[in-house]
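Exercise 7.
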Amino acid sequence: LKLYYETADVMIHLRGAENTRALSGVDPKKQAKRAQATRSLTETYMARSATKELRWVLTDYPCLAFAQEADMSLSEFEDFVYAATYADTDDPVAEWTRIHNEQQKVVDWLKGKKIVTVKSPNADLTLSIE
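Solution. The predicted structure, written as tokens, is:
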């Protein structure tokens, strides 16, 4: 697994589950130990991703367990996932390119900032983004 994280060029993750609560009976301390044990893999993954040495994509596979969590039938959940990922459009790549361009405007705006303040009628939030 370590070699995979250190050398892969592209990772494609499809998430699915038979039981979304499979770990509910596992002691949180044991789960924390596992997270600690795999921390170096996560750090490698994130560092390689940040330098664009590793490209990755993650999506949910429409499965019964996820549909159940969403209080939907499998068919409804499939439609939801396909719409959310633009897989139901004529040109999904164009949609994701549009989103990328919109997000890039925010990235450019954030460059050089150390503090961001969000104000609205219902919020007054100041965040450090260093």
